[in-house]
Amino acid sequence: MRRTRWILALLALSILLVACSKSAPQNTMNPKGPTAQTEKNLLVLVLWPAAAVFVIVEGGILLISIRFRHRKDRDRMPPQIHGNTRLEIGWTIAPAIVLAVIMVPTVSTIWQLARQPADAMQITVEGYQWWWGFRYTDPDMTVSYGDHDAIVTADVMVIPAGRTIDLSLTSLGGGAHSTSGVPDHEVIHSFWAPQLFGKQDVIPGETNHIVFSADEPGVYWGQCAEFCGLQHGKMKFRISALDEADWQRWVANQKDPAVKPTVGAAQQGMDLFFGTNGVGGQCIQCHGVGGTAASSTAAPNLTHFAATTHECFAGCDFQVFNPDGTPNVEALKAWLRDPNAVKLGAKMPDYGLTEQQIDTLVAYLYSLK
Ligand code: CUA
């Protein structure tokens, strides 16, 4: 009994201490854009009346149960009462008034957040198991090669700071294991970057919207918020907001086709990737590389895998670069060696690559700047 009490107390304390974290990139209470700010304002507005109701009701229960508890030396029955019309009308009308008052800001916020400004930048968010794809469907975000396709990225969504973005969210199933164009494992995800916007469901066959912007340049972390299978907890993403100059540079680079290395390990890796010499070629069955024959959308697009903004891969579970900016070769090698060994359930198969093949693939992928 004593031990249980200690354990419960420690548990409560540790939950409380979590609130002291200095590094909390997914803190709803620290909004960095107008959408998250509006949502926080509503939350705080409702929180105070809710706290008052909580204290009155729970305090009343505590007070009454202590004051009128059964005592050993007293065995007389207290007077038995049935019904009190005034009280009953009171505790029916009071909550109705509280709810009616709270409804006004709530409904107006819902309307406000549902607005889709015509000049917002259009990006389609595609939920896969277990990573996020971003398709820049805005008219001035088409690539310079191919049939004026959209810029496509995975894991990291890059946006211009201060600009309003209109996300179209949809779920595209299991990705790599899709056959004959019909996605398997169609599941519901939820797209959530706490410092920029609240959760929105990502549903197969439906299109939901989030309209948001980031006040300042910076990197904002996000997370799938709806259980969607084995790797739900590691279905992360980042939103990188750039200032105008960096944004223009990023767009120009993304519009270019992928580089084609002509010498060394990188070129050997490219040959293996595409199966040019009769060896390999499995990669292009699922991955797309802009400006080449690889155009599948079943797995993350790798056109600019090594661009500095592409901080993480495979559902942002692994860093593309070390803290000092050098390529994080070890993480990528481990991933290529056996994806399921480092991320159980990952849809990318183990192709039994040799260490030498892995080295060349790593060299190729890091050439895709
Ligand atoms: Cu996707 Cu949880």
Describe the structure.
The protein is α+β, with helices and mostly antiparallel strands and 369 residues long. Among the domains are: 121-255, Cupredoxins -  blue copper proteins (Immunoglobulin-like, Sandwich); 264-365, Cupredoxins -  blue copper proteins (Immunoglobulin-like, Sandwich). Helices cover 35% and strands 17% of the residues. It has 8 helices and 12 strands. The chain has helices at residues 2-18, 34-67, 85-114, 244-255, 264-274, 329-337, 339-342, 355-365, and strands at residues 121-128, 131-136, 151-154, 156-160, 165-171, 189-193, 197-202, 208-212, 218-224, 236-242, 312-313, 318-319. The strands form 3 sheets. A 5-stranded mixed sheet has the order 3-2-1-5-8. The protein has a 5-stranded mixed sheet with strand order 4-10-9-6-7. A two-stranded antiparallel ribbon has the order 11-12. Helix 2 runs antiparallel to helix 3 (85-114), helix 5 crosses helix 8 and helix 6 (329-337) crosses helix 8. The model has no long low-confidence stretch (mean pLDDT 91). Dinuclear copper ion is lined by residues 127, 130, 189, 224, 226-228, 232, 235.
